[in-house]
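Batch manifest line 155
LIGAND: FE2/S2 (inorganic) cluster
JOB: complex structure
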Amino acid sequence: MKKNIKFRVNGKRVELEVPTNRLLIDCLRYDLGLTGTKEGCSVGVCGACTVLMDGDMISSCLTLAVFADGHEITTVEGLAKNGELHPVQKSFIQYGGFQCGICTPGQVVAAKALLDHNPRPTEEEIKDWMMGNLCRCTGYYKIIESIQRAHEFAK
Ligand code: FES
Ligand code: FES
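JOB STATUS: finished
ARTIFACT:
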């Protein structure tokens, strides 16, 4: 069974017909070509597939594409504005918040959501918020530092 859905992705209107069992991550990556969002565990544990729906974090590997109907989805591709990286992206580059990069889109999107709520989070607040985003490479210290110092890049 298929359903016609309309939603916005990174500010652009999208309309497409999807099978009702199509996952949002597959819709983003394969139907819309937004391959920045990564798939790690596929079961809602690692956070690599994190995107925002109306500003709230969701696991796109657990979300059916039909649930995006009528909503605003933000992926990592939507964070830069006018060719300029988001402060949290600049900070990840400056302070070494990634190594292999597979977890990074999810980390960056989750960090953006945190900073939208709380522009100057403490280390404990960062650890608490980011507990759903796993990383096999960095040991987390540089990720935490990158998020904590992102304000240095805000205008
Ligand atoms: S791929 Fe979705 S939480 Fe791991
Ligand atoms: S940078 Fe490799 S998994 Fe996080």
